[in-house]
Amino acid sequence: MMRAVLWIAVATVVGILLGWLLFRSPECPTCPPQQHNNSEELAMLRMENKMLVAMVRAGLSGDISSHIKSFQSMNRLPNSTSEVQSQQAVTTLQPESFANREHANQLFARLDRADKKLQKQALAEGWASGERLVRERQILWQQARRQLSPFDYMAALHQAGRPNILIIDSLGGQSAAIKQGMQPGDIIWRIDGERVLTRQEYRAQLGSMADDVERVFELRRGDQTVTVTVANPNKTVAVIAQTVEAFE
Q1: pTM above the 0.90 mark?
Q2: How does pLDDT run across 197-207, given as a tens digit for each residue?
Q3: What's a single GO MF annotation on this record (predicted)?
């Protein structure tokens, strides 16, 4: 009898111990608090926001290449604050440059419509062949020249299908200029330090001084820059106008 009671007591104790071991809450060692770099997280958030803005602007403007570049940049977000800072400079310039180009194209579209209306008016009123039309058109297009940088103006001219460079076609009686390096095919870049892109600017620049005054031409030939002094360019230098993609 005593043995049976003893076995019952032992079984009870063993059951209690097993129940405690099986159903107790497992102890988790205290995890050390993670250190968060608030400044780096803030920089990352700013970077993501700028990427998203650039991507949305590119998509809305229909510029597929910029859209793809922005999307690819989102897929390779920087892992350090230094990378964030270095990429911020690039991403902030892209929208601004794109906005300037869009502004140039929109401005040129408006001026192109106004120019066509002006020519129709001159034709209807009988002054299409006079100096007045030339003067009025020059005043009209000078608005874009004043508002845009030479590069954006050059790009907008090309976008509108208008000539944006002047090329030396032929030289007559300019042995001195030829000896200095001027030759047909050279692109006229500056005259007396002033950027020249169109025939109107070319005529205006040469017409500001007497014909016998020597003018300094800065020419582009591939990657080379050639500077020559030309006497009487109105009578001795023939140029042709073409349209090309903008370059600096």
Answers
A1: no
A2: 999 899 888 88
A3: peptidase activity
